[in-house]
Amino acid sequence: MALKNVIGIDHAVVMVKDLDKAAENYKRLGFTVSPRGTHSAHMGSGNYTIMFDPDYMELLGVLTPTEHNAPARAYLEKNGEGIERIAFTAVDSAEGAEEIRARGYPPVGPTDFERPVTMPDGTVSAAKFRTFQWPTAEAPGGVRIFACQHKTRETVWIPELMKHANGARRLKQVLMVAPEPAAEAAHLAKMIDRETRNEADGAVAVPSGGDRADFVFLTKDQLGKRYPGVSLAGLPARGGAGLVIAADVAAAEKALGVAGVNSAGGVVVPPAAGNGTMLAFVKA
């Protein structure tokens, strides 16, 4: 039985060392970036969001070291910048937490939090969430997973933030490199009650649910063969490697300029130019 309260990938969290510099970099890559959000003192972090439909990316940075952000800081220390967490959409976080508990995964949370949001008309509102996490030690492919219930969608999916010069529309795949892709994919599939799917080049996909993006586990060598001519410098041997984004490829090519590499029928930003995250723009 698939999880009833978890319905596929909601957003990808890219952990960065300098939050404001990362936001400027993503603006140069043709993304519309939200105003900076600041989380609670307990969380000690801040973020910028890059909104698609029905999902998004989050650039996350530590503003003040706290106990809560210790795992994120440890990730940066060990891996450098890159995809540190993937969020699923939670219909009801309290019920979702009980669902994973029943499957042998003691949940962290649910936890309620919010951050102020400056709306396009200049007024200040709040984005409110209720999240729960699978146990921190359960990190398939080295990436933690959690689920996020949006209590105020209207302060997150703001129409003005959803139009991008690079033509980005939605997440299609989350690419995860690992020496043993099949084992990592099986681990994730068990955690979210999904089936794995073998791909022609030996990679293993795990659908995240509904019409949302798939996870694709593959070796670094397989990733290099999928995207010839794209430098994979800076990627860890095991961890989040990149995002495949459905987009208007011509718009992406124009917006990216010299940062983009034509490969695999689309245009690709190498990890070194994407804050540790490869961005592959493909036809929507």
From TrEMBL:
User: Which PROSITE patterns does the record associate with it?
Assistant: VOC
Transmembrane stretches in the record are none
Where is the VOC domain positioned along the sequence? 8-150
Q: Which InterPro entries match?
A: Glyas_Bleomycin-R_OHBP_Dase, Glyoxalase-like_dom, VOC_core
Protein's recorded name: VOC domain-containing protein
